[in-house]
Amino acid sequence: MGVSHYREHTLNVIIAGGGRVGRETATLMTAYGHRVTIIEQDPRITRVHSGRREDVTFVQGDATEAETLTSVNIRDADVFLALTDDETTNVAICQQAANFAPDARCVARSHRPPAATGNPDGVEAFVFPERAGARVAVGRVFGAPVQPITDLSTRFELVEIEAKPGAPAVGRSLEELDLPTKATVITDLGTEDLADGDMVIEAGRQYMIATRPDAVDDLKELFWE
């Protein structure tokens, strides 16, 4: 995923939840040139971190309340992320935000796979697993071709990629496929079958892959282009 994918336009980003994931997501978003406001209910967290950050606006309040959302100009939001540690609260926040900014992309943090959430109204994408970090949240916002799932270490990451119709990988087995040496297919996320040399890549299916970051562009060429 090239950084340019995240810099195409300056966005107005609102994040509900000023915990670690929310703050780190804000750091990435500001690094990509976007404007960020964080809503945090805990006055101590708001006070401490607003004094440390000049590039992020902190607002103390309850993001489930309409008054709080209007105070941060929710109608002007391009992106809204609900990143508190409670899934039910995150869904409720997104649904409330959607009432004010129906065109904003809403992303919620979840402790369940997206398929188990019931596709609630107002939520366009989920950050899962719940322990997933800021890079995952940013990937969900921009709908990048290769989606990070979680960082395994400083050298590897776990990503999710969909095989597009007509892509070079489609119709070929993993044994036949010239995968980058720094990447390994782990499973088909639909069937949850562990990958082996006989697994055939099918269009429209999503695959979990362990990869070095510098192999991501090669994966995009195989599965996406």
From TrEMBL:
Matches recorded under Pfam families:
TrkA_C, TrkA_N
Q: Which PROSITE patterns match?
A: RCK_C, RCK_N
* Domain RCK N-terminal, chain residue ranges per copy: 10-138
GO MF annotation, one: potassium ion transmembrane transporter activity
Q: Which UniProt keywords apply?
A: Ion transport, NAD, Potassium, Potassium transport, Transport
Transport: is it a keyword of this entry?
A: yes
**Matches recorded under InterPro entries:** K_uptake_TrkA, NAD(P)-bd_dom_sf, RCK_C, RCK_C_sf, RCK_N, Trk_Ktr_HKT_K-transport
GO terms for cellular component: plasma membrane
Q: Which residues form the RCK C-terminal domain?
A: 146-225
Which protein, by its recorded name, is this?
Trk system potassium uptake protein TrkA
